[in-house]
Automatic annotation (TrEMBL):
Gene3D superfamilies: Rieske [2Fe-2S] iron-sulphur domain (2.102.10.10). This is Cytochrome bc1 complex Rieske iron-sulfur subunit. It comes from the Bacteria. Pfam families: QcrA_N, Rieske. It comes from Microbacterium bovistercoris. GO terms for molecular function: 2 iron, 2 sulfur cluster binding; metal ion binding; monooxygenase activity; oxidoreductase activity, acting on paired donors, with incorporation or reduction of molecular oxygen. Residues 1-46 are annotated as: Disordered. It is found in: Cell membrane. PANTHER family: CYTOCHROME B-C1 COMPLEX SUBUNIT RIESKE, MITOCHONDRIAL. GO terms for cellular component: plasma membrane. The chain crosses the membrane at residues 55-76, 88-109.
Amino acid sequence: MAHDDDTQALDRAYQPSPGLGVAVSDPAQNPGLPHHRERMTDKDPKAEKAAVRTVYTLFYLSLAGSIWAVAAYMLFPIESGALIDIRYNNLFIGLGIALALLAIGLGAIHWSKALMSDKEFIEYRHPTRGRDSTRAASLKAFADANEESGFGRRVMIRNSMIAAVVASIVPGVTLFRGLAPFSTEEDPEAGDPVALLKQTMWDKGVKLVRDPDGTPIRAADVTLGSAVHVIPEGLNELGHEGGLLEEKAKAIVLLMRLRPEQLIESDDRKDWSYDGIVAYSKVCTHVGCPVALYEQQTHHLLCPCHQSQFDVTEHAKVIFGPAARPLPQLPIMVDDEGYLVAQSDFHEPVGPSFWERH
């Protein structure tokens, strides 16, 4: 009986209050398309012509930006090493490329908003079938798009856009040419990347000095577990005009000290280290990033760009990542005064592995 009373109370609680009705509306109706408001370029032929001039002027401005980027590359050669050339090279090439890409974007947006058809339409979904009628409809869709955009009949806009897009690629192609200098009659190997990367400033008796202050390094001062950034003695004296940046990019070295018993050395390299001290090129053999992250406990070197890892205990062999070969090892020894010096140059080219190597 108590259960029936509770049920009746719940029923009363959920009954609508007197005077409150529940309205049942009809299904939502399609409101249709909003009222179309014509643009000035649709109503005024002068405004349309002005918009056309604006669009192809922007495309020609993009073309001028691409040409200027190439000209700046030639006017301010970064290979000269002069600080003013390096600054202006980066500044003016960047401004030229930025202008080229920005003008293409603005021109395309203005074209679509001011000149292309802006009439709203509904495209109903239907099953896709490969019949002749479907193909004909597809061709008609391309023809309609061409008519609405004006691509086929607006010759100035079309040609200027094509010229701007093609020219925007030229600065990038031009910059790639600077990756290696030209060969000359005096130096036929100047354009050969293998020859360029095989010879560095390291030679027999060249002292290992700290980067960047150039302080010579005594073997006794290299502590266990340390990693020292090293350059060859005399590098800083070259200056920018003498090719300091180019030589440093090839000759940078990382010096580490382990316990001698931790080193796993092949017979032909046992004398390349000194009392657990080893020296390896800092230039990653993947794409040339500086390998400068040393983990003392695992004795691993990490390249921060693409996470290649090298095992310092075993000739810096690759243990992880996209690098294709170990880091080149610099043979070292100690002179009569206790300073670390090179036994010779690297025995192989430094840097990335994608060039042919002999």
